[in-house]
Structure formats: C-alpha cells, structure tokens
Design a protein that fits this description.
Layout (H helix, E strand, L loop, with lengths): L5 E3 L8 E3 L5 E3 L2 E3 L4 E3 L4 E6 L2 E6 L11 E4 L8 E4 L3 E6 L10 E6 L3 E3 L5 E5 L2 E5 L10 E4 L8 E4 L6 E4 L6 E4 L5 E3 L2 E3 L6 E4 L2 E4 L11 E4 L2 E3 L4 H5 L3 E3 L16
Parallel strand pairs: 23-25
Antiparallel strand pairs: 1-2, 3-4, 5-6, 6-7, 8-9, 10-11, 12-13, 13-14, 15-16, 17-18, 19-20, 21-22, 23-24
C-alpha cells in the first residue's frame, strides 16, 4: 500500500486495489473513489472529483438507417440504434409487478432473456416474445414444499411426514408417496384398497365416473388432490403429470399405467 492509501474493493469489481479514501464520494449508497467513473442511468455518466459527484448526459449522434432497418430505442440503451426490422421484440410488461398499474411497452433486442415477475421468464426469438414458467425441482424426501410469497419455487423445509408417507406436501399427513409400496394413494392417504367412488389405476385410487382410455391418462396432482379431464376426448390427447406441491399444466411428462 502507498502512503495515504488503503485496500478496498470498488463497486462491481472482483479484486481489491489501493485507493485514496480522501476525496471519496457517496452515490446511491455506494462509496466511489477519486477519479472513479461509472454509468448512472441509461444515458448518464458520472465521476467522483474531490468528494463531489458530477454527472453528464450523453449526446446521441444523428443516425440514418438502411432501407431494411429502423431506428429503435432499445430498453436500457442510451441512444437509438439501427435495427433490422426482425431484430427486436415489442413487449408490453404488465402492471402486476410494476410500481404502478400502468403497462410499459419495451423494445427488446433479439436473443435477450429477462424475468417478468418472480416466476416468469421471457425470451425474444425471431421478433416474437416467448414466456414460460421455470420448472421447480421436487423437494427431497423428508422435506415439505412451502409456498413463499414473491418467490417462484417453494422452500423445501425439513418436516417429519406421517409414518404412512414416504414424501408429503401441503401438510405432514398429506402423502405424495406411500412408505409401504403395497398400499394405494387416495387423495393424500395411503390405503389398502380404494374407497367407494374410486377405482385403482396402478398405485393410485382415482375418482370413478369418467371413462378414460388406457394406458394413457391425463391426471394432475396438486397437493395430493387428483384432477381428471373433463371428457375422454381430452384424456385421449393428454399425458400423465405428477407435479409436487403445485399445479403446473405446462410441465407434463409421459407415463403409462399398467
């Protein structure tokens, strides 16, 4: 270290370096050091000069675009750019996760991914926006999936399931799998035989009254409750989805019943 300097890690940097604390600045709660430059907003550039922060707004050059391009101000960029007419997406962000209820139209560059809320990932491909919910891994044995407000996937909390349960969800006595492989799962309970109004399908007891074509069924399991399709025609085009703790119809996988 040089005289009058100390070791510090600048904001956004990996390694420490020798800096002079004298004349440092504070900007948005971050300490900046003498002669340090950084980008403020999308089009603002700032510098620390003897304890004072000075910012300047960048000026954009005049640009003329080719015939198959158009001048677009992409989200997060300072100046508009000439972009191919199929090289960006127009996306209207909903007000659900914004500070106000108003919607905001954004222009997103091709190939960019972003998050819209805690459980929605979007991507710009071929000038089209595709959004999906990321799948959540199942909680390991001996834990319970607990929903957390503002969080996409549930927290896996250690819990002692009911002795009948190999795994459980929603509550410790609501089984997803039975400890005894000879027992059947009926609405979260492990039973020796299916009750009145249910019929056996493999290791499950399903609600009677709907004629389903074997060997493929369309069954959604949410917190142990089995939800059947509205008609056999729906089931014929469907798959079997076992989902842990949450109903995610977009994430099915094939499953054949004996």
């Amino acid at each position: 270290e040089r005289e009058g300097q100390s070791r510090a890690r600048r904001h956004g940097q990996c390694c420490e370096e020798c800096v002079s604390p004298a004349g440092s600045c504070s900007y948005d709660g971050v300490v900046r050091y003498q002669d340090e430059m950084w980008k403020g907003s999308a089009c603002e550039f700032c510098m620390c000069d003897h304890g004072q922060v000075t910012c300047q707004t960048g000026e954009c050059a005049k640009v003329e675009c080719a015939r198959d391009e158009e001048l677009i101000h992409l989200d997060g960029k300072c100046c508009p750019e000439c972009i191919s007419r199929n090289g960006y997406c127009v996306y209207e962000e909903t007000g659900e996760f914004m500070s106000s209820n108003a919607s905001e139209v954004k222009r997103i560059p091709e190939g960019e991914k972003w998050e819209d809320g805690p459980c929605k990932v979007c991507e710009c491909r071929g000038a089209q926006v595709t959004c999906y919910e990321p799948s959540c891994p199942p909680c390991p044995v001996g834990t319970l999936a607990l929903e957390v407000k503002g969080q996409c996937c549930p927290d896996c909390t250690s819990v002692h399931c009911h002795p009948d349960c190999l795994t459980c969800s929603q509550s410790p006595d609501h089984c997803d799998l039975c400890q005894d492989p000879t027992k059947l799962l009926q609405n979260g309970w492990c039973v020796h035989s299916c009750g009145l109004g249910f019929y056996q399908a493999g290791s499950l007891c399903l609600v009677s009254g709907v004629s389903l074509p074997a060997p493929v069924l369309h069954v959604y399991q949410w917190a142990g409750v089995l939800i059947l399709p509205a008609s056999p025609a729906d089931a014929a085009r469907a798959v079997c989805a076992y989902l842990w703790g949450r109903l995610l119809p977009r994430s099915p996988f094939l499953c054949s019943l004996p």
